[in-house]
Amino acid sequence: MHGNNSGLVSALLLAFVLVAACSEEGAGAVGDTGGAGADGGGLGGDLFAQEDTLQPTLDLGADPGTGGTDGAAGDNGGSLDTPPVDSGTPLGGTFGAPCSTNADCDSGYCVPSPGGNVCSKQCESSCPDNFKCVPKTNPSGDITYLCVPGNLALCDPCTLNADCNDSNETGNICVKFGNEGSFCGVPCGVGKPACPNGYACEDQVDPESGKGSKQCVPKDGKLCTCSQLAASQSKSTTCTTKNFYGTCSGTRACSAKGLGECTALVPKAEECNGVDDDCNGLTDDFQSTAKCDKKNEFGACAGKVVECVNGAPICDAPTPAPETCNGKDDNCNGKTDEGLCDDGNPCTKGSCNTDGSCKQAFENGIACDDNSTCTNNDKCNNGECKGTGSLACDDGNPCTKDDCDGGSGCTHNPADGACPDDGKPCTQDICKSGKCEHPAQSEGGPCPDDGEACTQDICQGGNCNHPGVADGGKCLDDGDVCTQDVCKTGKCSHPGVPDTTACADDGNACTADQCQAGKCAHPPVSFTVPCADDANQCTADVCDKGGCTHQKLGSDKSCLDDGDPCTQDVCVNGACGHPPATNNSGCLDDGILCTNDVCNNGKCTHPPNSKPCLEDGEPCTLDVCANGVCSHPAGNANAPCADDGNVCTKDVCQAGKCAHPNSANNPCDDNNPCTLGDYCESASGNCKGAAALKCNDNNPCTNDTCKAFQGCVYESADNILCDDANSCTTGDKCIGGKCTGVGTKTCDDGNPCTTDNCTGGCKYTNNTAGCADDNNPCTQDVCANGSCSHPASNNNLPCGAATGNPCVEGLCMAGKCNGTTLDGKVCNDGDACTSNDKCVGNVCKGQGFKNCEDGNPCTADSCDQFGTCVHKSADGQSCVAKSGDCPSGQCVAGTCQSKAGVTCQAEYDVDLCSSVQVPGTCSANGKCVAKQGQSGFSCPGCNGICLQCTIFGGIQIKYCLAF
Fold first, then answer.
1. Which of 420, 311, 136 is nearest to 877 (CA)?
2. What CA–CA distance (Å, rounded) separates 370 from 577?
């Protein structure tokens, strides 16, 4: 906090704090036992001493040397440097008066005390009671002896003895107060000052050395509180909470509100939550028999916690599911497949197959009711309820329908339809109004055939008559394709069909097969009609005068190839001939590149040529044909040829060979990075460097050399003295190729109220920065004159809720928040994963946590900063797979997959058998695959497993489960 009332507030604070220290006794008079200061005279008394707060007393009495022990003046005849001190509040700036900076004190020295900074004074050997004379080093380096309060750290929270001892002190011990923590004591006993009010001198054990020591500790087991100095320094101590489950460690610290509560957790039974609940150093080391269950809208299944993943329990309980046909209790209610396969038929009993389908077994012979009054003795038979007896309702009349009515019994209702035949083909036999009648058939209706194809068989006037049909009607076939079969005047006749009508084939391809004058004839066909092939390519096979002939073909017709490329293959006078082919036409290759392959007078010849021929691989020769063979004479003078790899030579053809004369004009590289100006030497034909390369990186911490195949190399030269040009480093030397300062000038004076820097030496400049917060909204926390001060400020300024704490509201007054705690008030703790946030002990806390459990054993469930449930895959963790055959699984990509290779029991439904189990091995998809059959049984011809079971009636069957 910030303000400008430091002087006024300090005076008010001193008046408030020192009121109990005021004494009406003056300095020790002549004749007193101890003189001034011996019994707390002068400014002595119980300054800051309040037994309830257990803060050490501070006596501001005169030096012990100001009075004698014999009632006279001291050795020097009385106090020479300390005037009598009037009782009451020290005047501003005098010894013991409150201060903020050295400038506030007449002596120029402001020192800390348990109740805040007070003015000190110089000393030589002794100081008033509860003060001690100690050396202090001022900024210039000189040593000054000052009176500073003793027992400065008494009852402060601590961790080590060093936390309790000022400079040059060693006797104060960090005393252990059980689970409450550790607090500073001060030595007491023979030859040492008495303990302040509210403290007792008791035996204690030094926790660091193990030796005994008498120390001032609070009386009657009271607990230390925090002094103003300890609160400003936020001193803390470790503390513990212990019970049946274990011991948890935490801290408690001083603040403007006093000594805080211990932050240690309360030990409890270990749970699977990612927290070390019993504080034994292990997280989630729960009992292996811990029970758990999985619940959802279908039910609850019990199991055991098999492991924890990221604070989430992995429960081996199956997940409740709707009951399905599988022979399992899916919803964990103690019943299996209940009510799933009831088809409502009293004559069947339903059960589930392992594949999820239903099967119904017949309940034969069970009494039932078929809901018919016209039957009796109803029983179940093959899944149906049927009556085994019925009423006889037949009245013998074919023209009535005999039935049974559930209410009236037998019924005989008139029924239309046929009745017994009267033997007359041209009458009807029909039921009408319950009686059989025989009216005449319709005129022209069919009646029995008289066997004549050219007459009609029709009813006329109730009788069967046979009048003739119209001429031209179809009648019986006489089997001759060259005649017609038609009716004429009531009789069947057979006149001839039209000529050229096709008739029976005589088997001759050179005749036509057609009817002539009612008979089948075979006249010859015209010339050029194809007939039977004589297999001669040089004849045409055509009909002539009713016979097959073979006409000769000429040379315009090709025939069978004789395989000679120098002959033609053509027909000659009806036979295949082979005259000579055209001269110079191509023929068979003799395989020689330097000859031509051509026909001459019907023969294949090979005259020589002068074509280019095969390359001999030599660039300095020609490759041409001569006299039928490939030759390679010298050629290509001065043409480029194969490189000899030397940049200082030419590579050219000379006299048919590749030559390499030296050349002084070519650029080159001698492959040596340590030379410059490389050139070709004409005499030797070699590449040489004209000058040597010099290497220098201007770094005093490297050795500079040039190495073949590497070039310039700069190797570190360590431990050589050098200068890194930094005035704030010391011991400069070469390290790793760099000039490095080994030491650094320490310019940190440990004071946050000075700005420390090194520019040509250490410099410390006072600043006005903010300093350690005393956690009091009603004070300023500012640096002034090189030290941290906390003057009261902001009177009547709202504190608590108005400054961000919704659980406290009030106003600042005299450096304190005069606030009221709002326990139970609804608030927001800023955590999206908590619920029912309320004020508890000045702090807004959530009373519940969002449940992010998704029921998946292969995810780690948590709540992120936005209140969103996060489910991360817990791959590699063991889990329980959904398969009943192969439950042992492992988490992969957030799902539980069965482990392959695990021994299991495979179940099979075998026709009428119930489920049969055989040993098997789990596959990667979670199925149990059978690996062997039951011993003692074999099935001939079975490529698989032979199973046996007993069905109804005690019948045993064997079944081959094929692979």
1. 311
2. 100
Cβ(542)–Cβ(549) below 8 Å: yes
Looking at 6-15, 81-90, 277-286, 726-735, which range is the least confident one? 6-15
Better-predicted residue by pLDDT, 509 or 256: 256
- The one-letter code for the residue type at 462 is G
Q: Where are the alpha helices (DSSP H) in 541-641?
A: none
Does the pLDDT value for residue 737 go beyond 50?
Answer: yes
SS3 749: coil
Contact (CB, 8 A) for 332 and 296: no
- For the record, the structure tokens of 380 come out as 């179940």
Q: Identify residue 598 by its one-letter amino acid code.
A: V
Class of residue 195 by CB neighbours under 10 A (exposed 0-12, middle 13-18, buried 19+): buried
Task: Summarize the confidence of residues 251-270 as an average pLDDT.
Answer: 89
Between CA 465 and CA 447 the distance in angstroms is 8
Rounded CA gap, 58 and 47, in Å?
Answer: 5
- Picking from 215, 265, 197, 211, the residue whose alpha carbon sits closest to that of residue 57 is 197
d(CA 354, CA 324): 10
DSSP 899: P
Per the listing, tokens 């000679």 go with: 564
CA distance 165 to 183: 12
Tens-place pLDDT, residues 540-585: 888 887 788 888 887 778 888 877 888 888 888 878 878 888 888 8
Highest mean pLDDT among 253-257, 264-268, 643-647: 253-257
206 near 221, Cβ under 8 Å?
A: no
- pLDDT band per the 50, 70, 90 thresholds, residue 45: very low
Which residues have a Cβ under 8 Å from the Cβ of 16 and sit 6 or more positions away? none
Q: Is 89 exposed, middle or buried (0-12, 13-18, 19+ CB in 10 A)?
A: buried
Beta-bridge partner residues of 259? 254
HSE-up of residue 11 (Cα within 13 Å, Cβ side):
8
| Location of structure tokens 């083909």 | 425
Q: What is the dihedral of CA 406, 408, 414, 416, to 10 degrees?
A: 0
pLDDT at 2 over 60: no
* Residues in a beta bridge with 757: 763
- Tokens for 713, please give them: 């190399």
CA 260, chain centre distance (Å): 43
CB 672 within 8 A of CB 708: yes
Distance CA 448, CA 459 (A): 9
Structure tokens at 602: 């019907």
CA distance 504 to 526: 19
* Distance in angstroms (rounded) separating the CA atoms of residues 720 and 739: 9
Please give the DSSP secondary-structure letter assigned to residue 453.
T
pLDDT of residue 471: 78
pLDDT of residue 260: 92
According to the model, what pLDDT value does residue 36 have? 29
Q: Residue 349's CB: how many other CB atoms inside 10 A?
A: 15
The reported pLDDT for the residue numbered 34 is 31
Which pLDDT does position 145 carry in this prediction? 84
Residues 6+ apart with CB under 8 A from 806: 822, 825, 827, 828, 839, 844
Please enumerate in sequence order all residues whose Cβ is within 8 A of that of 421, keeping only pairs 6 or more positions apart, or say none: 429
Residues 6+ apart with CB under 8 A from 774: 231, 232, 255, 256, 781, 790
pLDDT tens digit string along 400-421?
888 887 666 788 888 888 888 8
Contacts of 585 (CB under 8 A, 6+ apart): 565, 566, 598, 599
Per-residue pLDDT band for 946 (boundaries 50, 70, 90) equals: low
